[in-house]
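Checked the freezer inventory, then went back to the computational side. Two predictions to log before the end of the day. The first one is the construct we discussed on Monday; recording sequence and tokens without edits.
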Amino acid sequence: MRLSRCQCVLILAVVFNALVLFCLVLLQFRLDDVNREDTMLDVSRKGPVKVIERAVSRPVWDRVTVVIREFEEFENHLAETVRSVLYLYEYMRVVIVADKVPYPPLSLPDEGDVRVVFLKTSLDKHPNVSCPGRFVNTEFVLLVPDGAILTTPNQLEKVLNTFYTQHPEVKMAAAKVGGEMTSQCFNMDVNLKKWTLKYQQGDSAQNTCHGLDGSHIILMRTRDFHSLSQPYRRPFPQSLFIQTALRGWRVAQVPTTIPAKKLFTDPHNQWKHQTRHESRLKTMYEEFGIKKVSLTSGKVEWYGCRKETPRCFGTVVDDMPEYLYEDRWTPPCCLRALRETSKHVFHILEKCGARYWLEGGSLLGAARYGDIIPWDYDIDLGIYKEDIEKCPPLNMLHQEPHTDKEGFLWEKAIEGEFYRIQYSAQNHLHVDIWPFHPQNGVMTRGLWTQAHKQDVNFPEHFLVPLRKMNFVGVQVSVPNDVQGFLELKFGKGVIENPQYPNPNKVPM
């Protein structure tokens, strides 16, 4: 049976359509497989998770810029670290950030895209020259410490994959450099209002925290890194973790280790490095406004004022210390000095048998907190004027100021008829003692200062008898009706409704 030309064309059309349909079905299966590889969701995790993008979608060198910040110019392995990066990723940009022009000069590979940026500006250069950010325009920045040696592409791929599989609050992924595979994980409470930083032991059951001990390569998005106030501040990564913890960001540990070359094996260079590190640490805390650091061991480090230095703030105007305008409270070092000074004065007054009591804001702090008001800057006491002669340290002030054997400076204030005991001759944190005398059943000073608007005459019955209350960790004398006394001075509800001394200037 012979087929007509029309039948042949029809058969060919059917076969062609069948082939097209087969190809479309095969292509759909292939696309489904690709989609399963391109997008993986960790369904075992609670809450939102990130989508994993295939690493092959764009080459790593096109998505990551290596930044080396922490190194010493007098001894380093920068050349070896850079070579290890360029050996794996020929086209990856490496940016080395130095405080100033290194001396002796750095010895770096000639090949590759390697930039050295000096943060110290020069009068004859445009300020952009000292801006490392203009060379970091990839999606990610990889912060690499001096001496780290990348050996396989798998190391960076693990870091990238770990980053992608974390909760949104995890903004960093880190791999240990040298030593054991995991590091000590810790959390941080950064309280700028109180000028404090507290380290806390991390939960061993979790693989994320605010910071890590030791040396690490750290991956984060460039936009996050450059949103920090001082991303290139040294020492690194301590400064990085403080800034990220303040924002609530966390870091995830990657179960891999990066080999490292040893540094500072020479005792002199080791001492030199440690000395510079401690100096940078102190400068960093000063820049960040952190004056008290509590370590996980329980040790406390102080970076504020001391007995031999001036206090942390200048002359107070309108009863409002300068730190209140910065939305901060009294620095903890100043509070510590006030507590020491007041305890010293309490001890002497008790020993003399003088009738004294907490006054003004100090009494308000005792009633409200059992301590100094967190934003107060001095201690106020009242005393029976006739009892001054009982206490030689006060009675002798009619002649001249004197410093006692503990280093506290006693003087008669130049602002009015009262006495002032300062933390030291250099540090003017102080206790003021205001003499009162009874007159027809009313306690009066006879002369009031404009700086203390709450100073008014009051009935003597508030002091007969005096009672004890806890303040700065000791029992001190206070009026027998604390609430009534304070409301006479400041107004109704003063204990329950805290406010700054001059709320018209800075509201609570």
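The second is the one RB wanted added to the comparison set:
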Amino acid sequence: RYVIRMSFSASHLLIASKMVKDIRITYRRRHCFNNISNRVTPVKTPGGRLVAQYIAKRGKGPKCGDCGCKINGVPALRPFAYSRLAKREKNVTRTYGGSRCGTCVRNRIVRAFLIEEHKIVKKVSKPSSKKAAAK
């Protein structure tokens, strides 16, 4: 086991020294590297021992595929945690629910509508332009 010394603020150190004599704690898992995946915080057990409690990494959450902004209504979890959620909690009840944000969906709908309108206008104006050319 690897022994680590935690750096505390002065007030935290005083409280910890009153609780137990020695504030050294050991990692409980495999390696001793001080990186993001191996962060610990000291926690006092009911038995009075100070042990290392591991801090889980924060999730980033899903992003919109078009603009890259965060999708509202979907929690930001670690990837494996999504497997424990129900389907309704992983997406938004809307077209392109958990994939695109509401603004981008609105833009897509408006763009599709305008393209269809443009096609209809072209279709209507085509026969009248032929008549004008024939005269």
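For RB: The chain is about 35% helix and 10% strand. Helices lie at 10-19, 87-90, 102-134. Let me know if you want it refolded.
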